[in-house]
Structure formats: C-alpha cells, structure tokens
Amino acid sequence: MTAEVEPPAEPEVTLTSPAELLAGYLDFYRAAALRKLDGLTDAELRSSRLPSGWAPLELLKHLAYVELRWLEWGFAGQQVEQPWGDMEARGGRWRVKAGETVEEVTGFFRAQCERSRAIVADARLEDRMATLGGRIPPEEERPTLIWVLFHLLQEYARHVGHLDIARELADGVTGE
C-alpha cells in the first residue's frame, strides 16, 4: 500500500451519545486496520506468517464483507449478489483472487465502510435487522442495530489485534 494513513484517533472522551460513540469507534478501528497494512509490500500483504494461513489483504477483504453482511445485506435487507465473496465457501478460508489488486481490495473496503456509515446514519439504535442470512425470522429474533454495531466493534478489535501480530512478524513495526 502506498497511501499514508494517519494514526487513528479515539472518539472524544466527553461523548455521551451511544450512536456517536459506536460510530466513532468503528471509524477508529477501520482506520487502524488500514494503518496496519500501510507500508507493507504486495508480497507481504498476500502472504502469511501464521500457521492458520491467512494474509493481511485477505483479512481486510474479510472486514469489508463483514460490514456488507451485517449492515447492507442483513440490517438494511438489500439484495447482495455474493455475501460470502471473501471466502472460498461459506465458513471457509478467506481469499483474495490472484487478479485482485491491493487498490481494488482497499477501495472495496473503503466503499463498503461508506455504505455502512450511510445505513447507520439513517437508522435508530433500536431498529432491528431486516433479515438474518437472507431469511426473515420473526422481528423479536432479529438483532437490533446497537447489537450489530457492538458485534462489529468486537470483530474489528479482534482482527486489528491479529493485524498487529502479522505486521510485527512481517517487518517489526509495532504500535498504532
């Protein structure tokens, strides 16, 4: 990756709005994920140093699809052609196709984050998902937006931690 990514800033400590706090922390982790990849070569982005075999670029694509599945496909109920496009098969290994460029994956991630922001901005925290994996269960079984956002936060926190390790193993860079 060639673009410099500014160190992410946490939301203001004086925030009292749960919606602003959740949105702020999602943006914090989105920026952190990009920052962890900034400066890695194409080969480092596409290779793994871990026994599980995932590569940093695969993880970024996975995060984009996590946003797509939970907010665009599930919460907003929009038609999505390939909701599991980050995996070889649903529940399978993450993948980036040989012909996909770093710029394409990064652009897809950024665009998906923008779509997610728009969906969240037009909803209330107590609103419920439209679908669960393409099926429509009774409303009381559908997660609320606040639950989805907390779920996304834990997913990001875990995966940014994974990227911390991958980055340190790749070139020794640690920290923000």
TrEMBL record:
InterPro entries: DinB/YfiT-like (IPR034660), MST-like (IPR007061). This is Mini-circle protein. It comes from Streptomyces albospinus.
